[in-house]
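General statements about sequence and structure are easier to judge against a single worked case. For one protein, we set the task of working out the structure tokens from the amino acid sequence alone. This step matters because it turns folding into a mapping between discrete strings. The amino acid sequence and the backbone structure tokens for this protein are reproduced below.
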Amino acid sequence: MEDGSVQQAGAQLSGADMDGFVVPSGYSWYRQNAFLCTPDNGLLYHSRYDVNYVSPLEVDQMPRVQIMNVRAVVKSLACSQDWTERREFATLDDQNNLLVWDLDVGLPVKGHKGHVYKAHGGGPRYSDEVNSAICFTRTQKVLSAEHSLLIVYCLATDTYKIYAELFRDTVVLLSPCPDDRNVFAAGLRRGLIVLFSLKD
């Protein structure tokens, strides 16, 4: 019986193209927003130091896996909702660097260090505590929050604006409104949801 089941499993795998298959790294299951569905129906997720992209399934082919090393601990991950021109996503790491990545290149192409406003203490850099969030706008901007500090980063001009007094609590989730490109929702650590508007 065991031989028959092994032969069946082998027959199922023989129809799939295994060339170029990469085993993806494990995900950070204990982190909020570690998994994202991409506009092409792929999967984007982060482990401790890497961002992994798993392509959509195709008939008789294994999914393609791309692993990109961030070189720091990933705290937050967000994906652009429009992948027609560029397939972009963003990371915020434990050194508070915001990096915007081009998936096709596999490297960061833009970014800023606006959240690096205080020196790290002597304690451990990594914490399971969620204290940051990122989201893309429909106007080529990236919103990033670290604790209560919000930064709006314009990809077209490579400049950013800081909003230090917008929130009184730690932001753990940012989401754009599907109907109004200027309205966003921020989920705060204590459970409050704040709707706010940012005009261009």
User: Anything to note?
Assistant: Residues 21-115+130-197 form a domain with the Methylamine Dehydrogenase; Chain H fold (CATH 2.130.10.10). The two ends are 67 Å apart (CA to CA). The chain is about 5% helix and 40% strand. Confidence is low (pLDDT under 50) at residues 5-16, 119-124.
